[in-house]
Write a structure and sequence with these properties.
199 residues; two-stranded antiparallel ribbon
Amino acid sequence: MKEELNSSPKWTIILIAACIVTYILQNISSSWVYFAFFPAFASKAPWMFITSIFLHADVSHLFFNMLALLFFGTSLERMVGRQVFLLLFFLSGVVGNLGYMVTASNPYVPSIGASGSIYGVVGALATLAPFMIVYIYGMLPVPMIFAAVIWGFLDFAGLFAPSGIAHGAHLGGMFIGVLFGLYVRIMLKRMYGWEIHYQ
């Protein structure tokens, strides 16, 4: 992993391309429904934990998720390396779906999108680079930790206000991202004696 740090992002771009291609295919055939995440069928179709990450509801959903993945994903992939980043992306997506499963009011309503994975990236960045400046809605500059806390609070509040947003997936992904970030900090210090001071 040491040799990968600060290398140019690879998996972020591949994942964005995969989501775009999947969205095109999704609009060609109705078979995408077999790859969305239905809590009611999770035990019978475990592949949904992964495949649902690459599906998106509409162009707006796809665009904003991919924009977030581009900015946050490239930053994190440079920090932790390609393999670690990829592992976090999928782990956050899977746990995000678990988060949706335990908070969904109707287990027959599917969840799709890469938000759980992206919130995992956000959680990891908030842990590894808490004072890195990010722009909320492209305008307001705030520290990464502040942005993550605000988004986490809004999603927690959203659990009590039914909407079309899978807030449980966001929170599940972010939870894993924070744990993962803490783990990476500890391991880097133990293995290489590194302290992380990202701005």
